[in-house]
């Protein structure tokens, strides 16, 4: 009787542990897919419209206006979207995990700092050149607040344990139930796609009311 009861408790504990394990994993993967998609889509917009991106870089006036500034801007036109694609892709697949998260953190910090500095200098008549899912809007503190929210989500992903469905771990010696892994990836994809759709709808409503 006592043995049977103990086994039931043990099975219940294992089941609850698995539920918690995959719930956290889905949450982390959803966040990584969402943030990675933002970076990748932003990069694709810059790649498809390099001239517009070059003009935007010059409009921020954070680099010299002379020939050296033109050369730096030309390099940034290639480096920034290249970095976004590499870091965004690494974030989605989770390999290398630390590189992708730290890289994304640095990108969002740099973008937020540049926008903030430009606003402080009272230059709010230029477009952010974010592109992709986030769109392209005139710079404002609202954009900074949005980036701070993205940073908060990224920090949540970094410091909350449980980010286990990553290519880095799946290729290691750890064993996962393939069915549950596939189901978790599917669930994370649906959640992240829903978040992206929500951004699109919110943006459309904002533009309609503006």
UniProtKB/TrEMBL annotation:
<feature type="transmembrane region" description="Helical">
    <location>
        <begin position="180"/>
        <end position="199"/>
    </location>
</feature>
<dbReference type="GO" id="GO:0030416">
    <property type="term" value="P:methylamine metabolic process"/>
</dbReference>
<dbReference type="InterPro" id="IPR009908">
    <property type="entry name" value="Methylamine_util_MauE"/>
</dbReference>
<keyword id="KW-1133">Transmembrane helix</keyword>
<feature type="transmembrane region" description="Helical">
    <location>
        <begin position="98"/>
        <end position="120"/>
    </location>
</feature>
<dbReference type="Pfam" id="PF07291">
    <property type="entry name" value="MauE"/>
</dbReference>
<dbReference type="GO" id="GO:0016020">
    <property type="term" value="C:membrane"/>
</dbReference>
<feature type="transmembrane region" description="Helical">
    <location>
        <begin position="141"/>
        <end position="160"/>
    </location>
</feature>
<keyword id="KW-0812">Transmembrane</keyword>
<keyword id="KW-0472">Membrane</keyword>
<feature type="transmembrane region" description="Helical">
    <location>
        <begin position="71"/>
        <end position="92"/>
    </location>
</feature>
<protein>
    <submittedName>
        <fullName>Methylamine utilization protein MauE</fullName>
    </submittedName>
</protein>
<feature type="domain" description="Methylamine utilisation protein MauE">
    <location>
        <begin position="30"/>
        <end position="158"/>
    </location>
</feature>
């Amino acid at each position: 009787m006592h043995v049977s009861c103990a086994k039931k408790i043990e099975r219940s504990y294992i089941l609850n542990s698995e539920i918690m394990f995959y719930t956290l994993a889905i949450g982390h993967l959803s966040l990584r897919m969402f943030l990675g998609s933002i970076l990748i889509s932003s990069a694709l917009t810059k790649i498809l419209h390099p001239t517009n991106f070059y003009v935007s870089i010059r409009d921020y006036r954070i680099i010299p206006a002379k020939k050296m500034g033109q050369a730096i801007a030309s390099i940034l036109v290639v480096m920034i979207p290249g970095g976004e694609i590499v870091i965004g892709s690494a974030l989605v697949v989770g390999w290398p995990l630390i590189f992708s998260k730290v890289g994304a953190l640095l990108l969002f910090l740099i973008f937020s700092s540049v926008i903030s500095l430009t606003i402080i200098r009272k230059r709010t008549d230029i477009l952010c050149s974010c592109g992709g899912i986030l769109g392209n809007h005139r710079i404002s503190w609202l954009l900074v607040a949005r980036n701070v929210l993205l940073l908060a989500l990224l920090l949540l992903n970094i410091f909350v344990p449980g980010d286990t469905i990553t290519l880095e771990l799946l290729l290691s010696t750890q064993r996962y139930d393939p069915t549950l892994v596939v189901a978790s990836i599917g669930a994370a994809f649906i959640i992240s796609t829903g978040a992206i759709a929500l951004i699109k709808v919110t943006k459309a409503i904002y533009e309609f009311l503006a």
